[in-house]
Fold:
Amino acid sequence: MEKINEIRRLWRERFNDSRNWMTNVFPRIYHDDEALVIPDEKGSGIISMLLLRRYEMLYRQRIIHTGYIYGAATARGQQGKGYMSQLIHDALREAARRGDIIVTLQPARRRLYGFYDRFGFSTTFYIREERYTSKHRFLHDESQYIMEYSGHDPAELASAYSRLTSARESTMLHSEDDFKTILIDSELDEGCLVTARSVDSGDIVAMAIAVASPDSVAVREIAAVDDDAEAAVLDALSRRYPDRMTVVEAYPGKASPVRIFSRGMARIVNVKAFLELAAALAPGISQNIRVKDPIIPENNAIFIIDKGKVTTARYDDEEITVNLDVDIPVLTAIAFSTSRTGEIFSLPTARPFMSMMLS
Structure:
């Protein structure tokens, strides 16, 4: 069985991606060591699959290794038999083995949030939605920017994106290769990536990626040095797609009376590594945290945080006074929550953000 060919076959069966997408995007995102499958009884094909992609995430100015589950599917007639549950278990253990601290995903449908709850995932990623009518004008100083709609250098985009999002508490990062894929995928989806370049410095000071429909423009990501630069790229999109509503799916870090929607989920797979990060961020922490994890045995323990270090004791050690007794979804929800929530539990926390992820 040639694994990649069988994955292509099942992908075409279960997803609506075009032939152009399969030719131009799929080879860029597929890596054999990231593909988990369940073969059929004959061993000549597969009945279930997922990709466990590698990403990096910014978490309170630290970089952590992150897994991202994508392309999860089971063959028709084989659903409801536990194959995907088995693959998710395998993916979580594989992520922990290869050194990821968390695994993330975007449920394809609302009802799937409940399905992923069963494996210890928590809803942690949100977007701030802003809606503007076609008559709205994004006022800014036009003399300060050079607007660019094409010809972008992926390396410069990756560098600019990292710089423009560095103030976020936590966000998924994209490499130069990711941006090459994003540009190809956007073009196939009739989307647009627009940047604003400073006249004075020549640097990219704002970027936005959007997908247009007949009645609206959905801005999937926007990052800028300030409000004026942000208005510049939004104005450029509204001019490129006139007579359409602009819907911005933005980082929910600003205090404004707008709507917040769930975007994705996360699950800690390496508790000790995460708590070591927390201890490094806040060396004054002194806590004994007991964690229960039905999938990854190594996470079942009492984690003793003291003087910037983390040690472990048996889960059932009765001689240790436990300050916090939690399961994996609760610990994940705490870790990736607002700083106000973190203060309640005496832990450094950060609300994460994801955008431009293939879904």
